[in-house]
Predict the structure.
Amino acid sequence: MFLQKRVVNGITYTYIDHSFRIGNKIKKASFIIAKDKIGYNEKIIQKIATDRAKYFKENFQTYFTLKEIVEIETEKVFYQIFFNLLEEKNKKEIFSEFVRLFLANSMELEGSTITPKLADSIDKKKRIVLPELDIHLYNNSKKSLFRLMQSEFRSIVQFKRLHEDIYRGIYSHAGKFKKQINTFGYLEKALTSLPNKIRNDLKETLKKYKDRKVYPFLRPLIFHLNYQKVHPFIDGNSRLGRILLVVQMLQNNYPPLIFKGDMNFQIRETLVEYCNHQNFDFCRLSMEQYLKTSKTFWRPTIQKFLFHK
């Protein structure tokens, strides 16, 4: 990306030229970095997203409609261009806020009383009224997420190491695979892997994730579904799975999603539907939350820093 100045009708604008790969073709586009040119930029983003969506729909395995892929790619293009345009200190501030929101909601999904405001207090090491185990789990989860971002997840050992990092001091079985069959769900219970099948099933999960014929946005979602179907640990599977999902979305250049803390029933039921009936409703639920997170967090937060002057 290259920044340059241009004068239009006596007004000096900052432009950025960006190159996009769509299959074997490279396309270029110019964006104006100005608050009054958001509409102009959106038309270009929409055109690029549409071209990408058509390419993915024609050449990749995908669960989504063309219209849905256009929506998904629109948010990705915005994020790729304008987040990367920010100063490093602003990127870190935005991402730290995202992690607070993500972890607070993720912990609430499992019954914690933590809130984003309390999470902020934990980060600032303020004295708060919250169970020590919740504080410990929040700190462990945050460290694990940032550590995971620095590496590629590709071995069975890493599942155990990540579980141990998150739940050290929380569970006595941290980092140990289950020895008895387990399940989850409300109206219907999920069928999960037998203990003696865990390693083979996780290997298969990793293998499927590497399949480059699958639409990139869909790959982390399928990985999450297959991981949840294995359910390799006695407890703590879902929290670990969501951390992996966020990191994999980032590694595929998509702005990661947040599942709100009151969505426990919806999430679990869609996961059970996949485990027992190969139903992919979780993917559409994830897409909806991805779009919502982008439009309510990533876009406005990026624009705030981009146009703060």
About this structure: The longest strand covers residues 11-22. The chain has a mean pLDDT of 94.
